[in-house]
């Protein structure tokens, strides 16, 4: 009787152990499956966000292109016609010095407006980027931004381009945003754009000697930090990274990194 009881206890214990092992394996398998599902869901969410941002940036570029065409074909053409009409009218009333002076003044204002229209149109759609590539477009950006108060320099040691056109456009837009911020907000007198190519990585830095800013405070401001958030959003589309080395009272250094083999740039030019 005791032998049978011992045997039953041993069998029962073995069954319980097998069941416990089975339960442990099942729970571990279930948790692993849940973890994989959660990871897949997060990746799906991340991809969905990238798709949304891709569509947003593509829409922005299309709108920029439309506005540039409207300004060039619409406003630019009307200004040219207005200038020709003004010249014809001036010839008809020639002889009065005061009227002639007013014509010259008006013509000068029209010329200045036409120059501004062309400048805004180039800013909206960088034709140099399409024709000659990123380095030429950045050189043009630096040249246009340089004036009597601000000097913008471009350095690109051992950097061979071209990159994919959409990546060119992304880097150009980021440089454009950072240079504008340095001039308008940081009141910088010296700005340097650096472009490096290291193996399969492209790095771009924009540095200035301006007054700096409080990064956290700017990012908390929904309107003030929009440009910086746009930079982060643009880079997230191609798995890029940005580092802000900034503080109030001193110059800023913003560093961009993009792994070319991971970038898989989206088409923002269609």
UniProtKB/TrEMBL annotation:
Signal peptide: none annotated. It catalyses: ATP + protein L-histidine = ADP + protein N-phospho-L-histidine. Its EC number is 2.7.13.3. InterPro entries: HATPase_C_sf (IPR036890), HATPase_dom (IPR003594), His_kinase_dom (IPR005467), Sensor_HK_TwoCompSys (IPR050482), Sig_transdc_His_kin_sub3_dim/P (IPR011712). It is an enzyme of class 2 (transferase). The keyword Plastid does not apply. One of its GO terms (cellular component) is membrane. Keywords: ATP-binding, Kinase, Membrane, Nucleotide-binding, Phosphoprotein, Transferase, Transmembrane, Transmembrane helix, Two-component regulatory system. This is histidine kinase.
